[in-house]
Structures are given as C-alpha cells and as structure tokens.
Amino acid sequence: MLSTRALVWFKRDLRVHDHAPLVAALAHSDAAALFVLEPEWLQSPECDASHVDFTLQCLAELRAALALRGLPLLVRVGSTVPVLAQLHQALRFTHLLSHEETGPGWSYTRDKQVATWCRGQQVAGQEFSQTGVIRGLRSRSGWAGRWQARMDAPLHLLQLNEGRFQAATSLDQADLPTLQELGLAAHGKTLQAAGERAARSTLKSFLQERGFDYRKSISSPLTADTSCSRLSPHLAFGTLSMRTVHQATEVAIAGTPERAMAYALRGFAGRLRWHCHFIQKLESEPAIEWRNFARACDGLRESEFNDDHFAAWCEGRTGYPMVDACMRSLCATGWLNFRMRAMLVSFASYHLWLHWREPGLFLARQFLDFEPGIHWSQMQMQSGTTGINTLRMYSPTKQAQDQDPQGHFIRRWVPELGRVPLPYLAEPWKMDISVQRMAGCLIGHDYPAPIVEDRAAIKSAKDRLYGLRQGSGARAEAGEVLARHGSRKSGLPNSTVRKRGPAPRTASNQTAPAEPSPQGDLFA
Ligand SMILES: Cc1cc2nc3c(=O)[nH]c(=O)nc-3n(C[C@H](O)[C@H](O)[C@H](O)COP(=O)(O)OP(=O)(O)OC[C@H]3O[C@@H](n4cnc5c(N)ncnc54)[C@H](O)[C@@H]3O)c2cc1C
Question: What residue owns the CA closest to ligand 1's atom 45?
C-alpha cells in the first residue's frame, strides 16, 4: 500500500461498477471522491435542467453506493480548478484519478487547465479510458480492432469485501443542491429513471425481452421506445460503461436459444461500436461542434437563417404533422428514436434551410442522452455538410405513412388533429373546408398551414447541395474528410490530428475488420 491520498474525480461516469479510477484508488492509503457542478456546464448552450436533474439523481444513488464502501462523495459547485485548489488545501491529495472525457470545448479547456494545475501542485493526474475512443489517434486504420480489444478487456470491479476505502476526509458532504438552488427552472419533462440500478435493469430487460424485435421496430416511434435499448442516457452519464454493455450483449447472444433474438442483438451490438466511432470524430477534430466537416459547405446556409421557421420547428408547429408530433414528443420525454431524429434535422436543414448549429443546440438541450461526439457528427451528417455522405432528405409525409400508418403517434402528440380522417392525417392541408369543419380543425387556425412547400423546398436543397458537391474543390476535400474520419480497412492515407486533452496516448495500428455503417455509406 502506498502512503498516498487519492481524489477520485467523477464526471460522466456516475457508477461504481467497471470504474478504473475507483479501483486504482484502492491502492492508496486513503481516498475521497468528488463531483463538480461546473458553471461552465450549467451555463453552456447545450445544457438543460433535465440533464442536471438526471445528474443529481445519479449522484444521490452514487453517494449512497460509495458510502457503503467507506468512500465519501463531495459535491461542489464552482469551476473545477478553484474547487480542486480549495480541496487540496484541506486534503493534500497526492493523486487525481479520473476518466478521459470527449466533451464540448469548455470541457476540453477545463481538462487542460486541470492538467496544468496538477503539474503546478505536483499532484499526479491520472486519466483512464472508459470507451473505445482513442486519444491522440494518428490514423483510423486499425481503429475497430483496438475498439474490440478494449471492449473485451476485463471489467474494473470492486469486490465488496475487498473494495472498502479508507476515507480521507471528514469534510462536510453537504446535501445535494436542488435545481432551484442552482438557478435552474423546472424542466417539465418526464424522464427515464436515473442511476446505476435503473441502468442495469434497463440493460437486463433489453437483453432478455425487449430486444427481440430490435431490428424491425427501431424506425417507428410507436415501437422504438420499448424496442430500442434506451441505454443512451446511461451511456452519456456513465451509469453504465460501454464495456459492460458490450460484454453483457455478447453473453446474451451466446446464451440465447432463439436465433431471432441473437440476430436482433447482433444488430444492437454493432451500434455500440458506432457510439465510440462517432465520438472519435470529435476527439480527433474538436472543431466539428461548430465548423463544417467539409469547409466547401461554409457559407451555404449561414446568411439565410429564418428565425420564424426556427421557432415553428422548435415548437412543433410547422404544419407537417409527423415533424410536429416528433418534436412535441421529444420535448416532453427527452428521447426520440434515430430515424425520427434524422427526419427532424433533415426538415430543419433541407426544408427550412437552417444552418445546423442552432437546431443542434436546441436538440442537445432536448436529448437527455446528449453526447457531443455523436450529436455534432450526426447533425452534420443529416445536414449534408460532411461532404461525403449520401444526402438523405426525408419526406415527412412518407415517414408518417410508413412509420405511423394508423396515425396513433400523430394523434397522441398533435391533439388538434385528433378527429382528422386518416387519409388526410399526414397532409391535413389537403382537407377541403367542409372536412376541416367536420374534423374541428381549421387549417391556419387550429393547426398551421405548412410553413414551406415540401417539393419546392426539397428541389431547391438538392439543386444547391448537388451543385456544390460537383465542384472539384468539394470532391478533393471529400477525400480528405474520409481519410480523417471514415471507417475503413487498413491502407488508406494517414491523417494529421490535433491532440485533445492533457495526456494524449498513442497505440500501434492493427488491421480493421470491416464495420457496419450507421447509414450504409462510407462515413460510418
Ligand atoms: C441528429 C441526431 C443526433 C443524435 N444525437 C445523439 C446524442 O446526442 N446522443 C446519443 O447517444 N445518440 C445520438 N444520436 C444517435 C441515436 O439516435 C441514439 O443513440 C439512439 O436513438 C438512442 O436510443 P437507444 O439507446 O435506445 O438506442 P439503441 O438503438 O438501443 O442503440 C444503443 C446505443 O448505440 C449507440 N447508437 C445507436 N445508434 C447510433 C448512431 N446512429 N450513432 C451513434 N451511436 C449510436 C448509442 O450509444 C445507443 O445508446 C443522434 C442521432 C441523430 C440523427
């Protein structure tokens, strides 16, 4: 046992199981744990009270779980470096143990400041990876093999009898603050259950029952809410580790006697890799949260932002029932399935020709599972600014007919359309006035007329984007984007990367197995 004191700094890893810094802390003479509610986060444009509410609930459970093992969890409000400096005065910790984080710009800056502070105080700052995202990655070649190796590695588990800490502090733990004390208004959303226990039972119910129809049921918002795993907030806040989900899924696949279930779960297992694959893009190129992947797209939409269209989209009153139902459902629950997220963004980017950044910030606040690396990559993919993806422009009418053929979802979330006859439900503006009166829904009065005309808007978007892509500059740049971020077999050119974080790591390349694609195209 070393005569040293560890401070375990929790961030987006609010769990006890498979937590490398916690296990590492056991090797020190004593330890304490810390979570910081940072104003940089609370005041960031991506943060919503629902995210903070979920975090506070996770922290309450985590604090109790750590207390059982003798480890006090201190929760402080303030910027991290001053909080660390103050605690250092009181505790004189020698080691700061935490997980790597691939977050927005403010967390990137904070990590660098913490690293500088640690060096100045001669505190050993140790960061551990918790996903398949590789810091300081030089080439995408071999990435998938390295992901696999990390995911197959043993879990970092605290055995209950061995896992008791010597508490390093008698500092007042203080009650957790309320949303009000943090200056946040109530969010009004009905959220999924928070905490590690809820995460593990969600995983179990998915792998044992709910996952059966995964492949068939994930596109419709009617079935996706139970057929999808619903693990995304747990992965985002770290109440489950990706390695735990991956390993439990492999066990479930191997153990199920039903081929259909194994097939369904294999589809799910592939998506776990996408999670890290997308976050790797932000890790390697932090600017993608505000800048186009393809710089040839700079200037495409910036000067044409229509505030009224944006407001109508945010409030679910575009006049397109499927778009409005999805937005209202999302704002009430904090979750929406992939296909409908893509449709919302497609509508904002192509029909309304809005630049992706403001819609992206709005959606980041609505998604309880906001994960910057996935989110900003997907925002750009669905807006056509990666320069290399197939352009997918969703028709809200077709999506309504395909994914909600009986209109249950639309009627639930857009009650003004409750009595509109089914043949008109996806396109209520086609009702003549007598049908409108019968349905108690006057278009332009009870429910908006479409804010843009579908076909004309899509034609204009196609003309502009395909025109842009045909330019020789855009084509050359597409190759560069693909080299930096595309999944591929080994042999493609290496890229230069900007290193994130205080302690970039590199590892040797291996040959990549072929990967499934989130959209069936090269940007996977
Ligand atoms: C515009 C847009 C923004 C998005 N923003 C986010 C976000 O902020 N956070 C987030 O977790 N997901 C995001 N997604 C991806 C996807 O919609 C969600 O991961 C999924 O709906 C979460 O529900 P689930 O956990 O039940 O998914 P499941 O289908 O059960 O998938 C399991 C896990 O696999 C990963 N995954 C699934 N699909 C994808 C995908 N296409 N790309 C990357 N990872 C995937 C997620 O970690 C997910 O939790 C976004 C998609 C779009 C189109």
Answer: 275
